[in-house]
Structures
1.
Amino acid sequence: MDTQLKKVNRRKRISYLSSIVSIAMVLLMLGLFGLIYIQSSQLNTIIKENVLVNVYLADDINQAEIDANLAAIKKMSSVKETKFISKDVAAIELSKEMGQDIVEFAGYNPLPASIEVTLKAESVSSESMQNFKNVLLLMPKVAEVKYNEIIFGNVGTNLGSLSYILMALAAIFVVIAIVLINSNIRLNLYARRFSIKSMQLVGATHWFIIKPFVIRSFFNGLYGGILAVALLLMVLNILPTYFPQIQYLYNTQSFTVLFVILILAGVIVSMVSSWFSTNKYLKTKIEDLY
Amino acid sequence: MNKSTVIQLNNASIFQQNTLVLSSVNLEIFESEFIYLIGQTGSGKSTLLKTLYAELSLTQGDGRVADFNLHQLKANQIPYLRRKIGIVFQDFQLLTDRSVYENLYFVLQATDWKNKAEMDSRINEVLEMVGLDTKSFKMPFELSGGEQQRLVIARALLNKPAVILADEPTGNLDPETSNGIMELLHQIAKNGTAVLMATHDYRLINKYPGRIIRCEKGTISEMAMLEEKLMGN
C-alpha cells in the first residue's frame, strides 16, 4: 500500500517538476532575449554617449566668454559632459598624433580652442543634433560646430532599426512564452478533466475547485521563474569568461527589473492559464470530455 | 404518513443541447422509492438524469428536485442542488490520485463540513454502510470494480441526499458484484433515500423489484409490471 501511495505521490511530484521545468525553460528563452535586448540597449547608449560634438571657438574669445559658454552648454538638459580644449592643448595633441610639432611647422598655432561635448543617449537623434548645433552657433564667439553627421546619421538609423526589430522580436517571444506556458498548463489540466468534473458533481463550488489549481500554478510559476533567473545568472557569470568586454555592458538595475518581470510573468501567466483552463473544464459537458 | 416528493417534473421537455430528446415528461418520485429508468440506448435515460442533476438545463416545463426549482436554477445554485442528490456513474469517476478516505474527505470539505471529528465519523459511517470500512487507506485502483462502485455510493451518501441518481451503476460489473450493489442501493432506499437508477439489465429488475419508468418514443411512461413486459417480449 505504502508503495502504491509513494508511486502516486512520486508521479505527482514528477508532474509538478516537469511543469516547473517547462515554465523555467520558456522563461529562460524569454530572459535570454531580454538580456540581448538590455545589452543592445546598453551598447546603443554607450555608442550615442560617445559621439563627440566639437564646438570651435573664435580666436579672439577671452576667458570670461569661454567660462560663460561652458556654463551655458553644461546647463543644457541634453548635455552629459563637456571638456574645454585650449589652443595650446589642441596643438600638443595634434603634434603627438602627427609626430611633428605643428606650431613649429606652421610657424603659428592654427588650431582653435574648442569645447568637446558629449550628449545623453536619449537626446541623440539626427533632428535633435541639428537643433543642438543651431543653438550652439548662436552663442557668442562660437565659430563652428562639427560632428560626424554621416556616422551620426547611420548610428541613429541603424540603432533605431535594431531597436524596432528587437521590440518586434520581444513581442513575438512574449506571445510564444504565453502560448507555451498556457499549453503546458492546459495539457496538465486536460489530464485531470474528469477529476474536475467529479468534483463539480459532488457539489463543490467553482471557486473551491479552481482554488487549488490556481495556487499550484502560482507556485509552479514562482519556482519556474526563480529557476529561469538562476540559469540566467549562470549565463551572465559564464559569458565574461569567453567575451571579457561584455561585462562593460552589464547593467545591474536593468537585470534586476528583467528578473522581477520574468518571475511575475511566470506567476501571472501560470495562474491566468490555470484559471481559464479549469473554468473551461467546469463549463464542459460530461460527454464532451471524452 | 405521507411521503414527501423528492423529484417532480410537470410537462417537461428534455433537451440535449438543441435537440429535443423527451417531451411531455411528467414524473413524481417520493422518498424511499426505488425506481428503474429503462429504455434503449439513446432513448434519453442519461439525458433525463443529467437534467435532474442540472448538468443540462430544464428550459421547458416545470421541475423540482430536492426543493430546487430546475427551471429557475442559477449556475451558482447548482453545487447546492448537487449536495442534496447523490450521483453514481457506471465509470465511477473517482479522484484517482487520492485514497478512499481522501475521496470522501474531499467531498465533505467541498460541501462546507468544518469539524474534523464529525467528518471522520461520517466517513466511517458511510464506509461501514457500503462495507468498505477496512479499506479507507486504499487507492481507488487498488479496489475491485464492485468496491469502487461501493465507494462511489459511499461518496453519494455523505451528505444524506434526498435522492440517488444512478446511471447504469452495474454496467461494468459482473452479475454477482451487481447483486451486491443492488442490495446496497435497495437498502439505501429502505432507509429513506429515493433511488432513480437507469439500467438495461432486466435480470436485476426482476430480482429486485421496483417502480419502472420507460423512456420510449420521445417520452416516458410508467410500466406496471416487468413480468408482463417480459412475457410480452
2.
Amino acid sequence: MNFGFLRRRSPASVARDRLQVLLAHERSFRGKADLIAVLRDEILAVIAKHVRMEPDSVQVKMDRGDSVTLLEIDVEISTPSSATLVAR
Amino acid sequence: MGKVVVVTSGKGGVGKTTSTAALGAALATFGQNVVVIDFDVGLRNLDLVMGAERRVVYDLINVVQGLAKLPQALIRDKRIDTLSLLPASQTHDKDALTEKGVARVIADLRRKFDWVICDSPAGIERGATLAMRHADIAIVVANPEVSSVRDSDRIIGLLDAKTLKAEKGERVEKHLLIARYDAARALRGEMMTIEDVLEILSIPLLGVIPESLEVLHASNIGSPVTLSNASSAPGRAYLDAARRLKGEAVTMTIPSDKKGLLDRLFGRRAA
C-alpha cells in the first residue's frame, strides 16, 4: 500500500522544488540568452551564401523537455518558379 | 579607501531601501563614516525612509552632470553625524546617469567615506547595473518567496558578469540578506525556510530580518529601524548584519516563533 497521499507536501517544499528545477534550467542558459537569435542569424548567413533568402525565412525553436531538448529549425527557400522547398 | 556596497534584489518591494537605511545607520552608530546613495532615479525613496525628504536641494544627477559639487548634494544625518545621504533625482530619468559620471562620483565618495552603500533600483536595467558597477560587496536582499528567489538568482548572475570586478577577473563579495521572514509560517510549511533559500542561492548569509511592524513604523516616521528601535527584533537583526559586514564574527540567530501556546491556538499574527 502506498500511503504517500497521507503525507501531503507542504506548499513551501513545492516552492523549493519548483525553483530548483527552474533555476537549473535558467543557469544553464545564463549568458547565452540570445542563443536562438544567434543560431538563426548564423544559419541564415550560411544558406544566404548560396541561395537568395528572405531575412525571416529561418525559424528556430527550442522546446525544453525533462530529459531532451528539441531544437527545431525551419528554413524556407523561395525558388524562381515560386515552388517552395521546406527543409526540416 | 572605503568599501563600495550595492544593495540589490532584482524584484521590487523586498526591502532594499529599508535595508540600505538600516545597515547604513547601524554602521554609522559603530563610528564608521557612511554615505548611502539612492540610485533609483525618478522614483527616489531613500530620502523619505531616512527622514531627509525636506532637505534635498541637489541630487546624484546634478553631481554626475557637474551642475553641483558633491559636498553641496550630500545631506548629513541630523541624528548621527557620520551618516550622509546622496539622494536620487525625482525629475530626471535613468538615462541621465552616465557611466563616466557615476565612476567619478563613486571614486570621490570612496576617498571620503569608509562605506559607500548604493541602493539599487528594482529590475536589471541600466539603473540597476550602474548601481552594482563599482561594488566590492553586494548584499542581495530576498524574501522567502518564489519570484524573489528567482530574481535574486538572476541578479547573482549579473554580479558575476557585469561588475567592474567581474570584468577584471575578480569576484564581488556576495551576501544574502533574507527579509520579511515569518518563522511561524516557515514552521507550518507555508513559507520556504532559511535553509531552503540558502540551498537554492548558495551564497553566504548576512542576516535574517523578521517580518515586523517595527519596519513599517520606522519608515512611517522617517527613521532607519536601527535608530528608531534598535532593540526591536528587526533592529537587532540589522545591527548584527552590519557587524558581520564589518567582519566581526556574530553568531547567526534565526528569528524563531516566540508566540505562546494561546496565541498559537488562536492563530494570532505576531506584531
3.
Amino acid sequence: MTLTRTPVSSPPAPPAPGRPAKRRARLGRQDGAAHVFMAPWLVGLVVITLIPMIASLYLSFTDYNILSAPTFVGTENYERMLDDSRFWSSARVTLVYVLVSVPLQLAFALALALVLDKGLRGLAIYRSAYYLPSLLGTSVAVAVLWRQIFGHDGLVNHALGFFGIEGTNWLQNPSTALSTLIVLNVWTFGSPMVIFLAGLRQLPEELYEAARVDGASVLRQFMSITVPLLTPIIFFNLILQTIGSFQAFTQAHVVSGGTGGPVDSTLFYTLYVYQQAFVNFDMGYASALAWVLLAVIAVITAGHFLLSRYWVFYGDSDD
Amino acid sequence: MRELSRRNFLVAAGIAAGAGILAGCSGVAGGTGSATGTRTLRYAFWGNTVRQQNFQKAFEQMKEALDITLKVEFADYDAYQERMTTQMAAGNVADIFWVPSPHVMTYEANGLYRPLSEISSLDLSDYSDADLKDFELAGSLNTMPFGIFVPVVRSNQTLAQEDGVEIPDDWDWDWLTDFAIDYSKNAGGDRKALSYGADHDLSFEAWLRQHGEQLWTEDGKVGFTEDGLGGWIEWWEKLRKAGATTSISEQDGVSPSWEDVGDRCLLWFGNSNHIVDDAAMYPEMDFQLHQPPAGTDASAGHHYLYFPRMAVYQETDDERAELAGKVLQYSTSDVEMPKVVGLTMGVPPNPRVAEEYAEFATPDEQEMLRITAQARDADRRPRYEAPPGTSAWRTTFTRVLEEVTVGKASVSDAAATMITEIDRGISRAAD
C-alpha cells in the first residue's frame, strides 16, 4: 500500500503591520468563548473527578469509618491486603472473568460483524438487534432475567430436561456461577461488534479482488488481509473491554444479592470494594483497594500499548 | 455585546463552581434546615412499593391530624443503607429515620441519635418501666421502637390438613428432626417439611438463647461459642442431608426463596411479621404461627423481642425535634397509623395500640398479635444489639453456610471462621 503525504503547507504570512492588537482582541474573545463552553466540563472534572480522586488517595492512607475523622495510618491499608484472603479471592475471580470473557466477547463480536458485513438485507435491523444487549446487559433488569434463565426452574434447565439432562441452579453452584456471568458479558457483544463492522466497511475491496485473482482461500483472505488491517480496531476494542471488565459490578451485585456468593465465586473486585465501603464502613481500606485496581488497570493498559507495536498494524506506519 | 475579560470569566467560573458545590451538598431533600416550611420534616425509611404507598397514605392522614408535612426519603433496604452512609458522611441525615438493624449500635456510638428525653412532645406514659428499659440502647432511651418481631415457625395449615399431620404447640428440636425427616419421606411429590433456614438470624438467636448463649454481649462482643454456632449448623445439616429440607439449588441459595418453594414447605423459620407479606403470595393457603421448638432444658428467659427502631437526628434543632416527637407519637401511639399501614413492621410496641388494633386485624395479623403476646408475657433475659464493626455479620454467616453446604468447610471450621471474622471487625471498629 502506498501512502501519500500531504505537502507541508507554507507558514502563514506574518500579520500586516498595525493589526496585531486587533487580532489579539479577536483571539481574546475567542478564548473567552472557548473557556465558557469548556467551563462546565472543567468544573465537572475538578469537582466530581479530580478532587474525589485526590481525597480517595489520601483516605487510602487513613483509617476512616465515615462517621469519625480519618486518622493517618501510613501504608497499613495496603499491607493489610497481603493477608486478606477475600482480597485475593476477588482478584482471582476478576482476573478469570477478564481473561475468559474479553477474548470470547471480541471473537463473538468479530464473527457476527463478518456475517453482517456480507450485505444482508435488513442489516440495520440485525445491527440494532445485536446491539440491544449492550445497552441492557449491565442493567439490573437483565441481571434479574439471568436469575430466571439460570435458576433451578429456569429456561436452561427446562431445555436440558428436554434432552433428559438434569440441570443445577447455575447461579447457586460455585463451579458454574462465574461462568453464567461470563456468558452474560459475552452476550453484550453489540458494542464491539458495531465498531468491528465500521472497521470492516473501511477495508479496501481491491485487496480482496487481488487475493482472489491469486487464488487465496476465504480463510487466507481473512488471516492475511482482514485481521492485519483490522488490528487497530481489535486493539481499541481490547482496551475498552478489558477496562470495562475489570470494572464489572452490576451483574454480580444483582445476581448474588450483593454478597459475591456462593462461596465468593462471583466476588468481583469492585463488589469487594463496595462491601468494604458501604457495608463495613471501612472507607480507608476501600480507597486503597480502589487505587490498587486503578494501578493494575493502568499497568495492563500500558502493557497492551507496549505489546501493540508487535501486532497492531497502522496503515500509515513505515513497518 | 460586552466583552468577557479573563478576570470576569474566572469570577463567573468561580461562582458557578461554588454554586455547584453548594448544590451538591444540599443532598436529597435540600439539607437538614432547608425542608421548606416550618412544619415540614424529612423522614427516611425503607421497604417495598406497597409499604411506601401505605405509609404515604398514613402520612397524608397524619398531616391532617398534626399539620406536619413529611418530606419522604424512601429506598429499598440496601439502597437505604448506602444513602444513610453518604448522608452521615455529609452530616445531612433526615430529621426522622429508621435504623437498619446491623447499624443500631454503630449509629449510637457515633452520636447520631437525639435522646428522646429531650423531646417533651413525646408521651411515653402508655409504656411500663420494663418496656422502656427494653427499648434503651446503652442505658439511654434514644431510639423509638415502632414494631415487635419475634422468631417463629410458620406452618402451612393447608398442606398439614391435606397430609393429615398436626403441629403441636409444645415441641422440641429432636421431635422436629424426626418429624421433618419422616414427613419429607412420606409426603410425596416435591413437598418438604422445611426449607433450609440456617441463616435466619432471629431463629439462630433463639437457638443460642435456649442454649444459654446470646448473639451479642452487653459489652459489645460476640456472645456465642463455636459449639453454640456449630450445634445450630449441625442441626440443619442433619435435616438437609436426610432430605428433610428443600435443596440449596431448589430454594435458590442458603437463604430460602419463599417465592420459589414457599408453597411446598410445611414449615418455615422466619420473623412473626413476615406472615403478612408472605401469606399474600399464596392466598389460597392458610398459615399458622408457632413458637420455635424448645427443649425442657432450655435456658430460662430465652424468649426475646426484636424491635425495629426509628430515631430523631442529633443535629435536628429543638423546634423541629418537638415536631419530630409528635410524629413519633402518632406513629407509635395512635391506632390510626396501623389501621393504614398494617403490621408489616410487626406488632405495635405500645400495648394499648396493639389491643385497640386487634379488632381491625386480619386473620394473619391476629396470629402475629397472638404469638407476640406470648413472647411478651414470658420472662426475658436482656438482649443486646450488634456492636459497631459487625454490620457484615449476616453476610459472613451466609458465606460460611455456603461453604458448609458445598462441602468446602467443616462445621467446626466454619464456626471458627465466622467468629474470627466478626471479632476482627469488632476490634477494628474499636481501634
